[in-house]
Amino acid sequence: MLSLDNPLVKLYATLIGWVLTGFILGRYLPKGASTGLGKFLFFCGAPFSIIAFMRRANLSGYLIISPLTAWTALFVGAGLAWIWIDLGVNDERLQAISRGLTNPKNVDSRATFEEDSRAIKSAWSKPTQGSFLFAMMVGNTGFLGFPIILSLVGADYFAWALFYDLSITLGIHVFGVALAAYYGTAPKIEGWKGPLLTILKNPALWAFGIGLVVRILPLPPQADKILQTGAWTVITLFLIMIGIQLSKLSSFHNLKQGLTCLAIKMLLTPLVVGTGLMFFGITGPPRLLLVLLMGMPPAFITTLFAEKYGLDRDLAVTTVAIGCGAVLFTIPIWLWLFGF
Question: Residue 11 has what pLDDT?
């Protein structure tokens, strides 16, 4: 039934409505306003919502499964992406060689081969490979993932979503920096201390610790209601912020590579890992939650890393923008395959 009583319809109305609101606002708000909102959500809004939802989260069960699944999905996705990159590069090299072989007794055949080789490098340059891998690994499990999980799975399993998100954040600052150092063109990459401090200073990590304490404190029903209302207000601001960020993206390039990356990130990896969870006895809401998080589109931080470390920003923008729309089509697939 297409009514607001249907959780999926209600979720879509919320997602599309608030993201569209943010997109419209992003066209008119000054850059400083959107930057300020982003900082507020990162340092204040997100920690507040984590503390609030932790009060109703169920911490029983094997929570360690969540970060283990996050890292498994990260490595599986990166492996599949690397296989595709390797196949693409080798295919283009074979095409260049075949062009040279079909040029017998041509004194310019070597020049033709070198010209084709340059074309190959431009198709799968190191910055492009880096952006492809990075977008594949980093999903929008916070700003977009939390609202989806809370709407479809409920607050009982919020701790699972939080553990997953923190694990991905750790992966960003460990493997992301290493990946940028290898594939990027930036002249200087910070050492290990920078990423470590970034992880330790992450407000979400501290909010989780505070939430463990606050959840055992008795609060009057009215105070708890205010806390939950404030947390859902922050979730709404998350969606508005996504719309604002989407309004700043202006061009789409490398469509073929972008669509391939999204197919691996949002379809193949969740399907492979989600099916594998069944063999470890993980079913029901936890498995659906993990599959939904694995299928989130690339996070906006992929564009920031591309700019900071000299990766392919055009590819990063394409995967982020198209991925945010594609998630509306993938959610019903996961509900159908892994629903409970």
Answer: 94
